């Protein structure tokens, strides 16, 4: 049994970690750290946690964490983990950062897209990008995990097999992202205001989303080529769920059925990827509350384009679930441990 | 390990049973029976079940069921279970009926409110009303369970402590029900049409809901008095969730805090009931996907009324979760087994 | 043509006034006053108003308003209008206050429920409660209108005929209110956060809503008796729409059909009240975007209770539409002018 | 004053026509024709129309229509108007078909995409495609209008200026469509079932949508070149609203600001097109209930792509509103007559 701390206790990432860890037999939540509400019970903010978490949240105390916990999940806003994780380097504590702080290994890029000072380069260099379907071996060896963003998880899982097998061109890739509102977290803004968001589709951060360099970096790594993508994001009137619709020019003469076979074979040993049968496409509801990424594929013969639909629950495979999947791998447990649940439908 | 069959495989009740049974270590889904789609895989209809259920659905075969399964869940529309369950009387198979067929022990009442011929009287007499917070000992001994309706579950749990302790009068009780659309099942109608239901509150079946006699029967049993209630139902633009707001004239001079204490003590040994602190009230989201019934209480001193808010997930505590809770008790397992999960929030 | 000013230019009340006044031939929006954003165009905040309002919002200047406008709508939060309206007393400017500042004629009650200092007594005394279906003659003569709250509009219109005709008792009246989120305005809070509100029913302000004394005051005035009501409010996952379900003990032996006749006759000359046929009930969608109040009635013979469902659009009949209806009456125009539109469905 | 008939009285297209025609001073609804419900009042099905339409719906009678009405709106499913409109050719009755029957002038294409026999070629040849921003002069002269589909309206208005000015290539155009559920009409199906659609994004008809040939035909006409597009459609959990996100390779070195200028100049005399300022994009809510098409533009310099967001209300500019706009032009009235209303927000 490993002891776990969650830093950033009052956000949705933490709440989802708590929900999922309740089903995990080898991890025990020892501490929940909150900068703004330490001393309080988390059930004051989230009454649905009554009966589950009774200890008050605590202030950050790095020395005590080193003594008392084995794994730390950072469910913090951008700009927090980068200043704390370096203190754990050299210790045996495993750090899994759900924020974007360690995803761009270029310090300049981080400054440009996040508008903050980056983590120390040696921390950036040690962090492993926790997309287990692609970097499983590195994850197993990692002490620091940079957990992927929600859009990059969906986009990379949907594109990488086609990139790696040179089914599609490296340029002119279009990614049309659609996300539920919980991706914006619990802070209040026009983006999260019910009356502004309900019965509405709202394009946002067009050409300016911080997930653009993340997607391009890992696609480029796979392709061993410099890939740029046209990426847009749309806010959808739902709480959870994220789907990227992707379009890319075909490099090969290939049918829908052949692409499906190729993806199935690529993900054969990866339990959280489900490839849909020809002519059918995933919906976000079909992965709701689960760690699945469901992928549908279509070759448009008329236009010579590959169309990919890649659906996840942004709070699970796009955040807390993937973090636990990474923790499982880092500790030699079954990758699916605690995550082998059926999506909640309807 | 007990083998389980689910009859009525393509409705939401069955799908929710499958989701919850996946977390249960002592029950194994052996068969899914579907009258309309036997021979097909359930994942054709519900792609989110891919990887979980691979065997095709089967036709009903009572003799084989007697041989091969220990427990049958009836997730069938009204009018089906009543004709099948009698065939299992005398066998060792445990039958749990999620429909309304066995809830009214008066054959005449069933005919009046359901418009169908009732079950045989000896089946009605053998069936135990599976509200474990009230009838736990009977449930433990039962072979046939009549699983309560969604509104009655919420209403009875919210009213019974006050009735039993004569805090409120037996007359002039008002129950204002509010439910998500999944309660109407998967069949298509104006009630379940998105464009008719979204951005809308729709009163329905005013004075004519088949849950009225069910609520009144069990309240009356508790009170040892004939209780009638004014009960209305409102369709809310959400998928899951049900809350009854109840109003009853006080019979005693009592404060909110005293009523809360009384409820807490009444439900002390019942793990799925959570009583809210004074001044706070449950929301349906706070029980989403879970077997909890969360209850908030308020004494309106100005009008001498008790106000109760009682929230459940209509598909869990209002259907499949409660059915599993009953199965746990019937088989001597921990009441919470497979149900000890945190609500999914947000 | 009368010139109009709207004070409180960036809230939903103002935006709805602008939408409705666009259809009005005798009122012209001369000025929009905003304390927080004067100098800016309103289309910066509300791009849907591009092409309609081009002049920048202005700072409050009472002298210029007296010179340049004939009618002022106060779409301001509680506590603003009460300090401004007295400056217009004695002038010819008509003031219509959409906030709660002038609704309680008792200064003590205002202090208690709103937590602020009240308006001067002489302003309170001059203000007419702008519920035209009940106070039409007074409205016609008024210079200052206190526009009713959204819940009181629905509740009073649903109860007054039965109170006035002594169909129901003056005590033990229950009002179960259900409202869309736009009633909470545009400010950001947990109440208006999409992820907290979507797929959720949330009871709020139980026993503490500032509409309680307003409802009771006007019911009591009609009854010439002191009436108290048990009033609860529930936040529904929709933007617009409000419905009160009301329950009251019958004082008379009466059928549903007779109550319906009585209401139809009571509201015969009131074009915005539509009484539903027996056995049918209004939904909020059926009044969406319109100034209607649709009412359904049911006599529960089993429990001797009258059940009333009264649906409005909270931003129209519950705010801006009713304000324009009042302005029409004050100026001798047809009550329906600018408001004779069909609800938007679906 | 012209007399109007609506055929297809019980669908959402008819209901929206009724709503909008209520604001029109020169058209009077003389008849509502319903094949399935003639003899009944439309308010039986749509209670919100009580007080507005009192005459019962009628059976189709072509001779009487020729005598009694001047304009007919066909709000019928595919396959109906094509068999009726030929009977009005040669008469003075103006026919406006909201279905897809006359949109594809190639009889073969209609057969292929709609699976039905096409209209007579001479009817196809006479019908004018009613997209007034492009074909205004032809519309003014037309007797038969083929009213554009909802997706084509959004896509064509968003792409045509760039095509016509050769800003973008004629190939590799991607159109990612997102629509509310009302586009699927009132008939009941899994697509329109609340529990299947709420909290969900559902890709549908990928590569098979009957709007594909319509979009390509009119783009090709403008380009005088054969254009194919990759077009996908996604069902969004909202009732109304449609937005197409479009991506096309740039043919010119151009900035966002220059593209915006070009669109503004292209649509200068077209009152229903609003081009957003640089860096801002329309949301569907901002056109809700109105005849506007709001367009946002962005040049992605990194990938050399033009991104267009084009938002409409699918029932107004995508159906009934555009039909009225066409009727205005055909009859020499102001194009905006009856349509000059502010979107309903929020």
UniProtKB/TrEMBL annotation, chains A, B, C, D:
List the keywords (alphabetical). Answer: Amino-acid biosynthesis, Arginine biosynthesis, Cytoplasm, NADP, Oxidoreductase
Q: Name one GO cellular component term.
A: cytoplasm
Pathway of action: Amino-acid biosynthesis; L-arginine biosynthesis; N(2)-acetyl-L-ornithine from L-glutamate: step 3/4
Q: Where in the cell is it found?
A: Cytoplasm
Name all Semialdehyde dehydrogenase NAD-binding domain ranges.
Answer: 3-142
User: Recorded GO terms, molecular function?
Assistant: N-acetyl-gamma-glutamyl-phosphate reductase activity; NAD binding; NADP+ binding
Listed Gene3D superfamilies: Dihydrodipicolinate Reductase, domain 2, NAD(P)-binding Rossmann-like Domain
Indicate the principal place this protein occupies in or around the cell: cytoplasm
Enzyme Commission number, as recorded: 1.2.1.38
Keyword NADP listed: yes
Q: Which GO terms describe its biological process?
A: L-arginine biosynthetic process
Q: Which reaction(s) does the protein catalyse, per the Swiss-Prot or TrEMBL entry?
A: N-acetyl-L-glutamate 5-semialdehyde + phosphate + NADP(+) = N-acetyl-L-glutamyl 5-phosphate + NADPH + H(+)
Q: Where in the sequence is the active site?
A: 150
NCBIfam families in the record, alphabetically?
argC
The record's HAMAP family line, in alphabetical order, gives:
ArgC_type1
**Which family does the record assign?**
Belongs to the NAGSA dehydrogenase family. Type 1 subfamily.
> By what name is this protein known?
N-acetyl-gamma-glutamyl-phosphate reductase
What is the organism lineage in this UniProt record?
A: Bacteria, Bacillati, Bacillota, Bacilli, Bacillales
